[in-house]
TrEMBL record:
Any one of the GO CC terms: ATP-binding cassette (ABC) transporter complex
Keyword field contains Nuclease: no
Membrane association type: Multi-pass membrane protein
UniProt record, GO biological process: lipopolysaccharide transport; transmembrane transport
Record organism: Allopontixanthobacter sediminis
The name this protein goes by in its record: LPS export ABC transporter permease LptG
Keyword terms of this UniProt record: Cell membrane, Membrane, Transmembrane, Transmembrane helix
PANTHER family per record: LIPOPOLYSACCHARIDE EXPORT SYSTEM PERMEASE PROTEIN LPTG (PTHR33529:SF2), SLR0882 PROTEIN-RELATED (PTHR33529)
Subcellular locations according to the entry: Cell membrane
Length: 365
């Protein structure tokens, strides 16, 4: 019985190279197809903005592709696992390895090593590339695909409670007394929460207190009358400091930056459950690629001539996709406070790690 976890160096390199090539191939196919479908649905909106053309379409592609790579890399690892193991099984290579005395875990060890390296690369890629692309794309979408804002402190889709009223803005730039809102809407409500008046303006600046809206359009809900005003001051309860703590997009912040944002929220007495769950998921999300070879391993063992190879591949694929469904559901529950943040991010990973090990041991027996 061999005590080493990995097989021979030659076999390890062979399996790792085989697996890595298929991961890259599956990722390229998925990203290419999904990017084409995405462009079909968004190209009209991009070209509708004045001055936009082919260059802006390519800009959108460069910003969207990193998001697709980050999201579908674990799927690519799962599909590459199943394709690689089915090929090895059909060519009787798995039988040869087991006949040489290798256990199921030793056969999978090169694949797990490759998937682990892919997980590390995915984490670095998310931190260095995806967060910046997400922040830029969110700001561009908030500007209706107009000129991309260059302000790195730009916040998008700000939504704030001002007592019983609501203040919303498409973008917020600057800080402190120099803060400026674009695409501003103020909803005035009564004590029952019913909408009384809506005030809209293209621009608003801090008036200390309140926010001065230029060329405001007032709509009275009860009388259905629309009036124009040169300026209107609203939301005196909302300060620039509250806005700086309100518009945190965890997908657009790196792991360490999000950690600082969580500390700021906790110091201000704000709820951090959703941010904390996303913070943990920045680790568990990329690490899901490491889990895929274990979930897809059921396709490797069992005789190809038994007629059950296709069924085994479906079982492996079903286990992998079920993990992603459970992971998204747990993360949503963590965001709503149904699960503790750590449990929401890590429970699916450890649950399916145990399931994968159980299926692998039962299959080997």
């Amino acid at each position: 019985m061999q005590l080493e976890f990995f097989p021979s160096r030659t076999l390890t390199v062979y399996l790792a190279k085989l697996f890595f090539v298929r991961i890259v191939a599956m990722l390229a196919v998925l990203v290419l197809v999904l990017m084409m479908l995405d462009l079909l649905s968004t190209s009209g909106d991009i070209l509708a903005a004045e001055g936009n053309g082919q260059a802006q379409l390519w800009t959108y592609v460069t910003l969207r592709v990193p998001q697709l790579v980050a999201r579908f890399l674990p799927y690519s690892v799962l599909l590459a696992t199943i394709i690689s193991l089915i090929t090895l099984n059909q060519n009787s290579e798995v039988i040869a390895m087991k006949a040489a005395g290798l256990s199921a875990h030793q056969v999978l060890a090169p694949l797990l090593l490759t998937a682990g390296l892919v997980s590390i690369a995915s984490f670095v890629f998310n931190e260095r590339v995806v967060t910046h692309a997400t922040a830029t794309l969110s700001a561009w979408e908030a500007s209706d695909y107009g000129p991309i804002p260059q302000d790195t402190g730009l916040r998008t889709n700000v939504y704030l409670a001002a007592g019983d009223d609501i203040l919303a803005a498409n973008t917020v730039s600057g800080s402190g007394a120099n803060m400026t809102m674009r695409g501003v809407t103020f909803y005035q409500r009564d004590e029952r929460g019913m909408l009384q008046e809506q005030v809209r303006a293209e621009r608003a600046t801090y008036a200390a207190p309140g926010w001065s809206m230029t060329d405001a359009i007032r709509f009275n809900v009860q009388t259905a009358e629309t009036t124009m005003a040169a300026s209107a001051t609203v939301a005196p309860e909302v300060s620039p400091e509250q806005i700086e703590l309100s518009a945190v997009n965890p997908d657009a912040q790196s792991f360490w930056h999000l950690s600082d944002s969580i500390d700021d929220f906790e110091a201000a007495g704000r709820r951090t459950t959703e941010l904390r769950a996303k913070w943990w998921h920045k680790i568990s999300g990329p690490l899901s690629a490491f889990l895929m070879p274990l979930l897809g391993a059921v396709a490797a063992f069992g005789l190809a001539r038994s007629g059950q190879l296709f069924v085994r591949a479906l079982i492996g694929m079903g286990l992998g996709f079920t993990y992603f469904v459970v992971d998204n559901a747990a993360l949503a529950m963590g965001s709503f406070g149904g699960y503790p943040p750590f449990l929401a991010a890590w429970a699916p990973f450890f649950l399916f790690l145990l399931i994968g090990e159980t299926v692998l041991i039962r299959t080997e027996e």
